[in-house]
Amino acid sequence: MNLTISILLAVAIDFWLGEPRNAYHPLVMFGKWAAAIEKRLLDSRQSAFRQRISGGVAVLLVLLPCLLWLLILPGWPLLQTAVEVLILYFCIAARSLQQHALAVHAALMEADLPLARQQVGRIVSRQTKAMTEADVRRAAIESVLENGADAVFAPLFWFVVLGPFGALLYRFSNTLDAMWGYKNQRYLYFGWAAARFDDLLNWLPARLTALSYALLGNTAQAVKSWRTQAHLLDSPNGGPVMTAGGGALMLQLGGPACYHGQIKQKPWFGGLQAPENDDIKRACKLMCRTLLLWLILIGLGDSLA
Fold first, then answer.
1. Alpha helices in the chain (DSSP H)
2. For residues 173 and 198, is the Cβ–Cβ distance under 8 A?
3. Looking at the chain, which terminus has fewer C-beta neighbours within 10 angstroms, N or C?
4. Cα separations (Å) of 289 from 45, 54, 88?
5. Which segments of the chain have a pLDDT < 50?
6. In sequence order, which residues have a C-beta less than 8 Å from that of residue 147 and are 6 or more positions away?
7. Pseudo-torsion of CA 43, 47, 50, 52, nearest 10°?
8. pTM for this one?
9. Where are the transmembrane segments (predicted)?
10. Tell me, what's the pLDDT at 191?
């Protein structure tokens, strides 16, 4: 039961303490390391092929630190468990995601649209200054659904499969995708390897998350949305997660959004109901129920192993 105990302790610490301050978060230090590698290897004057090769080399170099746990992980069982718990705690962000979403909800309930835009801007990459209240609601709910997969369930999955190495490998890869995975002039070729590697690591966890959302919400609508709408979204992994989640909540999500000063005509997906303020809380509850389901299943599997 060591696996289950480690996971339960990490999740408990996450809900107790939340994320560490930015200055002390390992992902912040990792981001600085990645930026230093990018500075040395990214040359937009190179051919597309050479930029892709440079990007692949950069991914390998940047991900090397996640192997350090093999060298520093103590041999004493009790201390080893403590280090594993700490690593997983750094890799998940359930409470932080919930706090950010509820901050958006609180601002909307106070009818403070400028504050709601500011709060939702902390968890989405789209521009928020021209958002309506409806835009803010949809963006917050989409972020809870998608980041639930990225920041909670995928790290848990890889921790179960590969231990702390797997959790670190996934979170570092996901961070690289967030830094280099943009399809713009700077990163179109250099970020190709980071984006594809993140897609690979996310493929199965994303679909398990989508299935969990479907089982814990309106299953028929979730499955229908997943089956008929997932391919409409740009992300091969975000598509199943968000369409299943939107369907599970019976909420219509998506629609036009502003990125880098340009309106992107994103498809509508999910259910048919326009989100209300309290639907942000419903999305958080769906994420928390999914986490509870995963913990139960992991515990059962660990006891039978």
1. 2-17, 26-41, 48-63, 69-72, 77-91, 94-109, 113-120, 133-148, 154-162, 164-180, 192-216, 219-229, 238-249, 279-304
2. yes
3. C
4. 49, 42, 19
5. none
6. 93, 97, 123
7. 90
8. 0.90
9. 53-72, 152-170
10. 82
